[in-house]
Automatic annotation (TrEMBL):
GO terms for molecular function: 4 iron, 4 sulfur cluster binding; metal ion binding; oxidoreductase activity. Residues 322-367 form the NADH-ubiquinone oxidoreductase 51kDa subunit iron-sulphur binding domain. Its EC number is 1.6.5.3. InterPro entries: Nuo51_FMN-bd, Nuo51_FMN-bd_sf, Nuop51_4Fe4S-bd, Nuop51_4Fe4S-bd_sf, Soluble_ligand-bd. PANTHER family: NADH-QUINONE OXIDOREDUCTASE SUBUNIT F. Keywords: 4Fe-4S, Iron, Iron-sulfur, Metal-binding, Oxidoreductase, Ubiquinone. It comes from hydrothermal vent metagenome. Belongs to the complex I 51 kDa subunit family. This is NADH-ubiquinone oxidoreductase chain F.
Length: 448
């Protein structure tokens, strides 16, 4: 373990926890036991005092979700774990759960107690076979130990589509429909809603749920002692791309990006310095002048970038930023469900202009048109996808303007292939990720 690592969610020795009994011997279920003895108001107050912010990307305080849904008079409520993990560059939910599925389930039970949920549902991509097997085994053990009622937990398998990770689309899939975001958020229109029952629902990603057992077993004050004032606790980093030591690292929030890249990642993989770092495809590019930024939600937002889900994709000086922009834009355009015109057409138009630049068919007008279209991609849609395209693509152009101007009618001078790290697996021994196949042959969606 490197000196900067702080393992709370991950086992100290990184060996998988294989049974409920082993989990209990390591202190598991103490948080649930304590939480079940607490009145709901005190439970929510404890979470609020911890300062915990969800780790799904937005950093939204979980206590607010609990408070809102717990006060709703509807008698039918649900807890849902978002186990989509489709954001490029992210692998943490699968990694944490492969090591310890029990803390995820314990966290969901604590959340269910807080809001009075009748059921806990895990929405997970069907391709995550190993994690599904581990979760099913852990659920059977909890049921056998009489710690949870039979069928209180439900696992819903989902297709491998990016929008499944959007919480309103996630609920649509759980309800048996396509992954197309509905109009209303989960606390207004929840799982299996009817005209007479809104079924308010709390949705959090897997890593967020995993923090809860530790907060309630050791207390809010202990949790506050980790991380920063803005972002208490640990974050689990996925570090991929042009670094010597790509991998999974759990650290206290508050490290700088430079510490992540050099102390954890070992510096550049080759002889070229770092050029750009992306925390997924929803935040602006981070260039070397920002590498001393503290890694927490507030500090990164103040610099115009973002922590996201702490999945960092690193590119060195041999990388063409026009290719990066095109790769990201095409991914988002293909991922659009097509319901909203600013997203459906906007992401497609941006991609087509970038394709012109990449293939020597473009001019400086293409650059102007991309920025105009980025301005038209508003948040007046059912999800954040068009804003993602606007934020990340416009930031790349503004940070590397000369590179884009060079591409206006000229051949790219970079030969290096640009990979969108849709992470498929991680070999711990080799410290190496494998990637999903490229999406270049897939078609854009279009809904009239």
């Amino acid at each position: 373990m490197l000196s900067l690592e702080k393992r709370v969610l991950l086992p100290e020795d990184l060996k998988p926890i294989e049974s409920l009994e082993e989990y209990k011997q390591l202190g598991g279920l103490k948080g649930l036991k304590r939480a079940r003895k607490m009145p709901v108001e005190k439970l929510i107050a404890e979470l609020k005092a911890s300062g915990f912010r969800g780790r799904g990307g937005a950093g939204f305080p979980m206590a607010i979700k609990w408070d809102t849904v717990s006060k709703d008079p509807c008698p039918t409520k649900y807890v849902v774990c978002n186990f989509s993990e489709g954001e490029p560059g992210t692998y943490k939910d699968r990694y944490i759960t492969s090591k310890n599925p029990y803390q995820l389930l314990e966290g969901m039970l604590i959340s269910a107690h807080a809001i009075g949920a009748c059921s806990a549902i895990i929405g997970i991509k069907e391709k995550y076979v190993y994690q599904i097997e581990r979760l099913r085994k852990a659920i059977r053990e909890l049921e056998k130990a009489k710690l949870v009622e039979h069928k209180f937990f439900e696992i819903v398998l989902a297709p491998n589509v990016y929008l499944f990770g959007e919480e309103k689309a996630l609920l649509e899939v759980i309800d048996g429909r396509t992954a197309m975001p509905r109009n209303f958020p989960p606390f207004i229109m929840g799982v299996r809603y009817t005209p007479t029952s809104s079924n308010p629902t709390v949705v959090n990603n897997a890593e967020s749920m995993c923090h809860l057992p530790h907060i309630f077993s050791k207390g809010a004050e202990w949790y506050r002692s980790l991380g920063t004032e803005d972002t208490p606790g640990t974050i689990t980093i996925t570090l991929s791309g042009d670094v010597k030591r790509p991998g999974m690292y759990e650290v206290e929030a508050g490290l700088t990006m430079r510490q992540m890249l050099y102390d954890l990642g070992g510096g550049p993989a080759g002889d070229k310095p770092f050029k750009a770092v992306f925390s997924g495809v929803a935040n602006a590019v981070a260039t070397p002048d920002l590498f001393d930024t503290v890694m927490d939600f507030g500090s990164m937002r103040a610099q115009g970038i973002g922590l996201g889900s702490a999945g960092f994709m690193v590119y060195d000086e041999d990388t063409c930023m026009v290719k990066v922009a095109l790769t990201f834009a095409r991914f988002l355009a293909i991922s659009s469900c097509g319901q909203c015109l600013p997203c459906n057409m906007g992401t497609r138009i941006i991609t087509e202009h970038l394709d012109n630049l990449e293939n020597k068919l473009g001019s400086e007008k293409d650059i102007e048109d991309i920025l105009i279209e980025c301005g038209r991609c508003t948040n007046q849609t059912r999800c954040f996808l068009p804003m993602q395209a606007s934020i990340v693509i416009s930031s790349i152009i503004k940070k590397f303007p000369e590179e884009f101007k060079y591409h206006a009618g000229k051949e790219c001078c970079y030969s290096k292939e640009v990979i969108l790290p849709k992470l498929k697996s991680f070999d711990e021994d080799q410290s190496q990720f494998t990637y999903d196949p490229p999406m270049w042959e897939e078609e854009f969606s279009f809904v009239m």
